[in-house]
Amino acid sequence: MLYQTKFLISLFATLIIEIPALFLLLRFLYKNKKISLRKIIFVGFVASALTLPYLWFVLPPYILSNYYVYFGEIFVFLIEVLIYNQLLELKFKDAIFISFICNLLSFVIGLIIF
To answer: Which residues constitute the domain of residue 48?
Structure first.
C-alpha cells in the first residue's frame, strides 16, 4: 500500500476518533453546551487536518527514527492544545487535558487497527 494511502486512512481514522471524543469530553465531562456541534466538528477537523500532515510528511526527515513517535506525538499534542485553546476558547488546562485524551485515544486505537 502506498504511503500516501496509509496517510489518508490514518487521517480518516483520526477524524472518526478525535472529533467524537472532543464532542463527548466537551458535552459530558465539561458540561459545555455553549459551543455548537458545528464548531466542535470544524475545530476537530482543523486540528487533525493541520497536524497529521506534519507528523507524516514534514517531521520525519528532521527527527531520528528512534525518537520520532515521542517528538511527533508531543508536537501534535501541543499544537492541538493551542488550537483548542484559541478556537474553542477553552482554558489552557482544559485544552491540555482534552488534547491529551483525544490524541491518546487515536494513538492507541491506531496501534490496534494498524
So the answer is: 33-113
